[in-house]
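Loading example: each entry is read as two labelled lines plus one structure line.
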Amino acid sequence: MLRKLMLVGLAAVLLFGMAAIAQEPVTIEFWHAMSSGHQPNLQKLVDDFHAAYPYITVTLVYQGNYGALQSKIDAAVVAKNLPAIAQVYENWVTPIASILYPIGNFMTDAEKADIIDGLVPSNTYNGVLTTVPFNKSIMVLYYNKSLVTTPPTTWAEYFEMSKALTVDVDGDGKIDRYGTAFRPAANPEQFLIFLEQAGGSILSADWKEVALNNDAGKAAAEFVGSLIPYSFITSEYMSDHMKDAAMFVDTSAGIAYNVKAATNAGFELGVATLPAGPANFDSMIQGTNVAVFNTENLTQAQKDAAVLLAKFLIRPENTVFWAEKSGYQPVVKSAYNTQEWLNWVAAHDYQVQMSEQMLNSFSQILHPNYGDMRSVLSTGFEEIMRGVVPPLEGLESMATEIEALLE
Amino acid sequence: MKRPRGAGKKRAEAADRKTIRPLRLPRDRAFWRETLEAYWYLIPAFLVLGTFVFYPFFSAFKLSLFKWSSLNPPGDFIGFENYRYIFHDRFFWKDLGHTFYYVGITVPVTLTLAILVATLLNKGLRLLSFARTSFFLSYISPIVAMVMVWRWMYNVDYGLINYFLSLVGIDAIAWLNDPRYALPAVIILSVWHYVGYQAIILLAGMQSIEQQYYDAAKVDGASGFQTWWKVTVPLLSPQIFFVFIISLIGSFKVFTEVYVLFNGPGPLRSAETIVYYIIRSAGRIDNVGNHTGRAAAASVVLFGIIFLFTIIQLTVTQKRVHYD
C-alpha cells in the first residue's frame, strides 16, 4: 500500500514538475513582411495561438517589405542573432539550410501528408520537411469576359484565341489589343510554367545537368515564340494594362487589383485554370514559407515554441482564415474540404479555379543557385519575348548560362 | 661667346628658389603643443570620416577579394576572381555604358539649365521668393513620391507628357515599356529633380558678386550678354565647379529613380545602372543570389571611376576657377 502511495506521489510530483517546465514562460519573435492590411489578421492568428498556448508570447516584428526582411535576416545570420521564426522565400534560406530547425521532425505523418503536394518539394531540404508554407499564391489565367466566353483549355486553343483576339481596332496599322500578355522580366515563372506543362524542368532530377534545352524545353520555347505576335509585353503590373490584352497569366494574389482595374476599364474579369500543355496543366506556386532557426542565440524552449507556432499556422482552420482575409491560398489539402472554405468558395466563384489550380501545381527547386538561375531566365525570357533573339537560340543561351551556375 | 638661350632666366629662377626657400621654423615646445592641439580638433572629423568613409571603403575592398558566405563571413579568399567575373559579365559593361550615357547627358544639361534659371531668378523678379521656392520644391520632394507621380506622367495612354507630345503631332511613346526611351525617361526626371537645387546654389553665388564688377563693365560699355559671360560666369566659377563635382558624383550613383520608376531595371534591363548592378549583385533586389563579393568589386571599380573623374575635373577646371 505504502509503495503504491509512494508511486502515486512520485507520479504526481513528476507530472507537476513537467507541467511546471512546460508552463515556463517563453517569448519568441516572428519576423514578417506583411503590410498593414494583413497585420490585424496575422495578429488575430497570434492571439488565437496565445489562447492555445498561454505560456508562449509571440512578438510580431514587421520588417518592412520583403527586401528589407531579407536584409535583416542576412544581417542577423552574420550577427548570429536570428529570431526564432520568420517568413522566408526559398532562395533566401537555401544557402543557409544548415541553420534551419527541421519543423517536419515534429509533425505527424498525417500532418506532413496534408501539405499540398506541389508545396512539399520546396519545403524539403535533404529529404526532411524543414520549413512550412505560409502565404502562397498560384498563377492562373485571367480573361476579359466580354471577349472570351469560354477560356482556352489547351495550348492549341490558347494560341488560336490569342491570334483571333489580337486586333487593330482603329485600322491605323498598330495593334490596339493583344490576345494575351506576358511580363517576362518580372515573371520568368511564366516560362517555367510552359516548361513544366511540356514535361520539362530547369535541371535533371539529380541537379547535375541542365535539362532546360531538352525536347520539353524546346517545345515550351517554340510555343511561347509562336505567341510573340499576339502578346503584349510589359514589365509593369497587368492592372496598369487591363485594356491591352484579352487574356493573361498572373498571380492569384493580384485578384483584387486586377478585378478593380477591369471594372474601371469597363469589363468583367474571369479566372480560369491554365491551358494544358502536352504533359499537364500545372501552375507554379509562389510566396513565402515559415522557417524556424536553429542557432545558438535561441533556447530550446524558444525553438519548440516556434515549431508550435509554425504548425499552428497551417492548421486547416487557420490557413483558411488567413486565405479568406489575405487573398492567399490555403496550404493544406484538408482546408479545401472545410465547411468554412466551401462557403467561401461558393461566395467567390473565381476561387473554384484557383483551388483547382493549387491542387495541380509545382514550386521552385531548392538549388542554392536558384536565385541566379531565375535571373538568367528573367533576362533570357524577356529577350525572347521582345524578339531580341529567336526562341531556340535564347533557350540555348539560357541553358549555357545556367550550366555555368552548376560548376 | 654666345650664351645659350634662357640660361640667364634659369639662373634667375635658381636664385629665386634659393631666396624663397621654405622657411624652417624652429620646432620648439610651443610648435608641438599647437600641432597637438590641432590634432585634438581634428579628431572628431577623423572619427566620423574614418567610421563612415574610410573604413567602409577598405572593408568593401577586402570583401571584394572573398566569395561571400553568410554563415562564415566574409567567406573564402578568392583573390581577384570577383573582378574577373564582373569584367566578363556583359551586363556590367552594359550598365557602365548606361551610367556614362546618363551622366554624360544629365550633368551638362542640368548645369546649363540651372545657370539659365539662376540668371533669370537673379533678374529681380517680382515673385522671386515664390519662384525660388517653386524650383526648390522639386528637389526637396521625397524622391519616391516624386517618381510615382512621374510614372503617371509617363503613362502611355493617359500621361501628361504624351498629351503634350500629341499636341505637336508626335505619336504616343511607351516611355516605361520601350527600351529606347527607358533611360531618357530617367534622364528627363533627374534633370527636373536637380535643376532647382543647382539653380539655388548658383543664385546664391550670383547674388554675392559685388556690384563694382558690373559697374566697371557698364563703364566699359559691355552689353548684357558680355557682362554675363565675362563677369557673372567667371565669378560664379567656384559655385559652378562645386555643383559640377557634386552633380557628377551623384549622377554616377543613380539608382532610386530607376528602381522606383520601373520597379526593376527597365525593359530589357535598358535603364540598369552600375549602382543597380551593385545592389542586384548583393542579392538585395530582383530576387537573385547574394554575391556580396562581386557587389563589393563593382563598387571598388565605381569608386575608381568617380575618383578618376574628380581628379581630372580638379586638374582641368581649377585653372579656370576664380576664387576672387
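The radius of gyration of chain B is 26 Å.
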